[in-house]
């Protein structure tokens, strides 16, 4: 995915139906979340764009009042089959797209850094500070 422009997709209804019991997956039927894909260790991570991010485990693009828009690493899901992605790319706000595209390599590094933090947090999941460091992982 390096050297290409950043691309966004939607997760399909098949994906949401298969994982409907997972409460951590973001789902809005009338306004789906666009996701950015990062490949790492033969896994595909789908990171959603959100408009109400208030924590540090993200890449923020646009600030409005007390909240920010951007990619939310804590709501990342692992996609094990490309059939769960929309056939056509998702369209997002142009200002946000330009910032994300310009910084796509930094975003990838930040996501990989978050994965390291997440793996470390898994070792002590009941520790209070680790309770918000999650990724919805599916196989």
TrEMBL record:
CDD domains attached here? toxin_TenpN
Give the superkingdom in one word. Bacteria
The name on file for this protein is Toxin-antitoxin system, toxin component, MazF family
